[in-house]
Amino acid sequence: MILKELLSQYEIENNLSHKEMAQLLNVSTSTYYRWLSGESTKLKKTTINKLSDIFDCDIEGVLEDPYVSGILAQAEFSQPMPILPEMSSYWGPVETMYRSVWEGLATPEQAAEKALADYNAALELAQ
Known about the structure:
Layout: H1 3-14, H2 18-25, H3 29-37, H4 45-55, H5 59-64, H6 66-75, H7 91-102, H8 108-126
Helix pairs in contact: 2-3, 7-8
């Protein structure tokens, strides 16, 4: 896994600047920029321990895992999805909408109208 991907993702998720992230890790801003540029990937044991604490995992294992590096590389092209209770009411109607259009049971407009009605009904039941 590329260290810069892990650091960048953490910055985004926690709305931190590069400077704030460097301070959190107790490293100079120039060292942090070298990590982000890929110029340096060497980490002191104390930094590895600090990263492990921040990410609540064995960071050495994560940095060496080829599967995790692929997931993080793909994350660059992803968009976060909201973590809202209302989203649990969303997935069923949307699945039905796509299936009904795919199977030719409804036009896209009809399916979308029904999905919206089903979603709103599910929200009412959830309250």
